[in-house]
Amino acid sequence: MYSSDSEQMLVDTSAPVYRYHQVKEVIRSHVRNQKLQPGQKLESITEMARSFEVSRATVVKATSELIDEGVLYSKVGSGTFVADPAGRKTHTICFVVYSGDYIRAPYFSQIIAGISNVADEQHYKLQFVTSERAVRAMNGGSPYPAVKENKWTDGLIIMDNMMTDDQVRGLAEEFPVVLIGRKIPGTDIACVRADACGGTHRAISHLASLGHKRIGMMVMSRMWQADKEKLSGYRSAVADLGLDADESLVVDHNSPSRRGDGLKSAADRLLDLPNPPTAIFVSDDIHAFEVIQRLRERGRHVPKDMSVMGFDGCLSDMLRVQSVPLTTMQLPIAGMGKSAAKMLLALIDNENSAEKEVTFTPELVIRESCGGKMKQQFVEEVNGAA
User: Fold this and answer.
1) Tell me: the pLDDT tens digits for 330-361?
2) pTM tops 0.90, yes or no
3) Confidence class for position 284, pLDDT limits 50, 70, 90
4) Using an 8 Å Cβ cutoff, are 312 and 107 in contact?
5) Does domain 92-194+335-360 correspond to CATH entry 1.10.230.10?
6) Fewest beta carbons less than 10 Å away: which of 106, 207, 249, 270?
7) Three-class DSSP category at 93
8) Can you name the CATH fold of 19-82?
9) Does residue 352 sit in helix, strand or coil?
């Protein structure tokens, strides 16, 4: 573990204490007494197992818990090192989401893949924490009960529309923060976002080019910044193109004022209009596929009876199992995660050149859900104007 011929490191096999706990406390003691210095590399798992005369599994459990507690940190492919006892660096970054269930959703999983790629390259550990626990941990606390003396992360990547601006500001006062999918006006909090307004304008332009005059718009919530920007792009396109400017064509399916209403009910509000739309633009791909399913339940054929279009392209890899491949405004989602991670690590290292805002332009991808194929020249013109 370190150069010290006189140090006894054998565990007491007769003691009523688990061996891994004894190994853990010996290492912790050596860190506390500065026999192990910040940044110092420990022996390999095999070498420590030989020194302590225990199994490799025992050493792995001991060091893993010390890593979780911030006493040690690991570098993929390099080994295990002693963390800074002053908590100046934990070599851990956190991805903050509203619910742990979200990380399994296609959009989030692709974001995480991008973040993980950069974290692994730079030898950072990536942890997940819910927004509630992160906010509760402000003012010196930690969302991880085992972390008591040390800082619990070096920085946060936050992807949560439900977290208030004040809560984000509070976390940004304690840690470097990068937001994904939103920007807080009047602050210099770093962010990675999509051109939601411009992308939606291009989507509506595409539908209009196919002959649609009454185009429905479905968003999660008019209160969320990204959806506000998409609504702005929708209304701008409707005005620019002389389409039907009927506010009944705009519905949201996750508004607090419509609790329990749900996506199906929102789709029904469009379908039950005296003069229903001939196309629906949905603010994300997952819900666009659900709209297609609802249309099928209502006896409407896509694209014969109704065109449907999405935004983000998160389900591109699932098209093989979809009955109607979806036209969408596609984003490089994993690339957004990579950009956020690189931005955060630059902020952690106090790099003067660290970017504070990156905006990604979605690309029009045409598939069967909108009917007839457009000329390639028009596709290039739409994407080239991004």
Assistant:
1) 999 999 999 999 999 999 988 777 789 999 99
2) no
3) very high
4) yes
5) no
6) 106
7) strand
8) Arc Repressor Mutant, subunit A (1.10.10)
9) coil
